[in-house]
Amino acid sequence: MKIATWNVNSLKVRLPHLLEWLAANPVDVVCLQETKQQDADFPQDALQQAGYHSAFSGQKTYNGVAILSRSPIEDVQYGIPALDDDQKRVIAATCGGVRVVCVYVPNGQAVDSDKYQYKLNWLNALRDWLREEIKQHPRLALLGDYNIAPEDRDVYDPQAWQGNVLVSEPERDAFRALEQLGLRDAFRLFEQPQQSFTWWDYRMGAFRRNMGLRIDHVLLSPELARACRSCSNRAARRRFWRATTRTSPSSSTWPTGRR
Length: 259
What we know:
The structure is a single chain. The chain is of the alpha+beta class and 259 residues long. It has one domain: Deoxyribonuclease I, Chain A (4-Layer Sandwich). It is 27% helix and 26% strand. It is built from seven helices and 14 strands. The protein is globular, with a radius of gyration of 17 Å.
């Protein structure tokens, strides 16, 4: 089974890229963030023609998450149950016997802003919910845009970013709190190239110079982590780059028979 996550930054704009990528890389499950579409506009028919069932939770202009799956999607959960939040940032579903949780974590804007405190509160609510979710679903994968670079090696210039949003200690503590639930960072289960990132600023030639951060992650429950065979970041082709300022999906793979 292969699962992937991709911040598409507008599914309306990126749909041709997504369909082309899926045709070339027929993964089993894809989590999308920042779809930026109301549910009525979600391209369900086009994705079904490509071989994917879909579950989605969107809003106009901002946020929005979706799960695409080759197998039927079951038991869909929208949002964090105990959190009163109008922003569409979480969707969970069972796909092929795996509980898939797709998240778009708030950016936080700046460490002295209200949005930063909202981010920390949101992450606390996510952790509390997942503590119970993992008990019910031992085969669980948490994928998405976390807007957190968990370690200095996930930042092209740690000194330049020190104390800033995306790398601040409270955010990293929140990431570690998710790991303390038993979740494992799939990317770090394997030896990886240095300077492996998933996001770059669109300015200053950051992509060409690899001035990036690793902020998109796949965390796996212990049962899935034991079966995981690989995890990688795959850079989008350059003709996609100017539009996306992202990689193509980060993905993890494990044998279907050992999910």
